[in-house]
């Protein structure tokens, strides 16, 4: 087994590719899953003064946070690269602090350990994915971001660190199947962002190590799957608990608690004793007291994360044109809400329009007409939402549509590139 690997260190999820006799394979990270949330939880509950926080990674990190264990959850660590935060420290609880870049290094070390366990030997070389721009419109900070990630990789034991652009990695699979040069629009729509890259691929370019000149344009928006979940919960779950409801005077009930319940990182703030007491005293604000009772049941039983999960599951159910019933019996026996594709699209219309506009802007930046795009390549979990993928494809009627593995095509492409660089 060669002593190298490829790591897709993503904003929302990460994956590892290892070379094999032919091609590459993805490492099973958690319970057989080939991807793992890019998350670290520093648990400080019950520690003695001299003890370091215990770290949980991926799904275990998210579970520790949801369970209310004392500590600090860190997500989307990639976003601090290139900022002044990288070398600053942040509190994780119980008077303890950790440097942001050490959080990144600790996560990379965990991924390296998993890869070495699968490979059965130490790995000292790595290809890391990187966005076209870590930091928009600031080349100096962008260079600092890559340098910081390189430093973190060196700290955990990688002596040789190379990079490949994520949209190029995503397009490598398509490139192996074509016999002439093409312009490909890579649509990478995940949990946090919708990114579009226009790239040039072809047989004559496969052997090139530096593919920067093949990226013709890049654009994106910070709207994606988690925003969809939030909007669907607000539109189809939380109205049963009073969101959008009226008070005795005809005035709408205060909405902040509902927006907090639908925002993943704010849910636990709703459970603070002072906040609970305040919400309990707002009973008179509701004309329909059943709605207030349901809201307090959600808060008293800390169902916030479960409701987001219900919205996400419903989104997945209708992604291919189906319909579903959202079971809310945890709040009240027999309580439910229905959702189909048409209602989901109606709730998400503003977000869908902005994402499609980002695709159009990518072409505008390249100075290229839509009919000059030869292929569309979809990757990222949210491209599974058919109405969104169909709208993007409709803007490019002459383009061949290819779909990579929604969650791991970038890692696969990075592995292919690693074989070319190190193999």
Task: Explain what the structure shows.
The chain is an alpha+beta fold and 423 residues long. The chain has a domain at 226-345. It contains 13 helices and 18 strands. The chain has helices spanning 59-66, 100-119, 139-155, 166-175, 225-236, 256-261, 267-270, 273-280, 289-300, 304-318, 341-366, 386-394, 409-422, and strands spanning 4-9, 13-19, 24-26, 36-37, 39-43, 54-57, 71-75, 89-93, 96-99, 125-130, 160-165, 182-189, 194-201, 215-221, 323-327, 336-340, 375-379, 400-403. Strands 1, 2, 3, 4, 10 and 11 form a six-stranded mixed beta sheet that branches. The chain has a five-stranded mixed beta sheet with strand order 14-13-12-17-18. Strands 6-5-7 form a three-stranded antiparallel beta sheet, sandwiched between helices. α4 (166-175) packs across α13 and α5 runs antiparallel to α11. The protein starts with a strand and ends with a helix.
What's the SSE blueprint?
Blueprint: E1 4-9, E2 13-19, E3 24-26, E4 36-37, E5 39-43, E6 54-57, H1 59-66, E7 71-75, E8 89-93, E9 96-99, H2 100-119, E10 125-130, H3 139-155, E11 160-165, H4 166-175, E12 182-189, E13 194-201, E14 215-221, H5 225-236, H6 256-261, H7 267-270, H8 273-280, H9 289-300, H10 304-318, E15 323-327, E16 336-340, H11 341-366, E17 375-379, H12 386-394, E18 400-403, H13 409-422
Parallel strand pairs: 1-10, 10-11, 12-17, 17-18
Antiparallel strand pairs: 1-2, 2-3, 2-4, 5-6, 5-7, 8-9, 12-13, 13-14, 15-16
Helix pairs in contact: 2-3, 4-13, 5-10, 5-11, 11-12
């Amino acid at each position: 087994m060669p002593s190298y690997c490829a790591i897709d260190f993503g904003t929302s999820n990460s994956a590892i590719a290892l070379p094999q006799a032919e091609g590459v394979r993805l490492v099973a990270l958690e319970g057989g899953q080939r991807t793992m949330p890019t998350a670290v939880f520093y648990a400080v509950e019950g520690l003695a003064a001299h003890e370091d926080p215990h770290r949980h990674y991926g799904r275990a990190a998210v579970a520790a946070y949801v369970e209310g264990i004392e500590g600090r959850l860190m997500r989307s660590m990639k976003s601090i690269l290139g900022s002044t935060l990288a070398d600053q420290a942040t509190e994780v609880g119980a008077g303890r602090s950790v440097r942001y870049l050490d959080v990144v290094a600790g996560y990379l070390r965990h991924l390296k350990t998993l890869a070495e366990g699968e490979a059965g030997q130490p790995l000292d070389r790595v290809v890391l994915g990187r966005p076209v721009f870590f930091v928009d419109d600031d080349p100096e900070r962008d260079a600092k971001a890559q340098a910081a990630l390189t430093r973190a990789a060196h700290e955990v034991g990688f002596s040789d660190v190379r990079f490949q652009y994520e949209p190029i990695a995503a397009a490598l699979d398509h490139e192996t199947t074509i016999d002439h040069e093409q312009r490909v629009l890579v649509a990478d729509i995940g949990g946090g962002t919708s990114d579009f890259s226009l790239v040039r691929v072809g047989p004559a370019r496969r052997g090139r190590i530096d593919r920067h000149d093949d990226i013709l344009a890049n654009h994106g928006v910070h709207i994606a799957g988690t925003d969809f979940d939030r909007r669907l919960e607000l539109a189809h779950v939380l109205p049963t608990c009073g969101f959008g409801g009226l008070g005795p005077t005809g005035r709408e009930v205060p909405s902040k608690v509902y927006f907090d319940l639908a925002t993943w990182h704010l849910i636990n703030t709703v459970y603070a004793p002072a906040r609970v007491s305040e919400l309990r005293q707002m009973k008179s604000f509701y004309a329909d007291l059943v709605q207030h009772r349901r809201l307090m049941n959600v808060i008293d039983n800390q169902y916030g994360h479960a409701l987001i999960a219900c919205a996400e599951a419903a989104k997945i159910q209708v992604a291919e044109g189906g319909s579903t019933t959202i079971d809310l019996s945890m709040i009240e026996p027999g309580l439910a809400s229905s959702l189909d594709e048409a209602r989901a699209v109606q709730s998400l219309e503003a977000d869908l329009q902005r994402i499609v506009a980002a695709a159009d802007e990518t072409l505008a930046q390249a100075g290229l007409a839509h009919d000059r795009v030869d292929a569309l390549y979809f990757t990222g979990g949210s491209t599974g939402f058919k109405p969104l993928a169909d709208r993007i494809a409709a803007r490019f009627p002459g383009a061949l549509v290819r779909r990579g593995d929604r969650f791991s095509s970038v890692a696969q492409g990075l592995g292919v590139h690693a074989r070319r660089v190190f193999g």
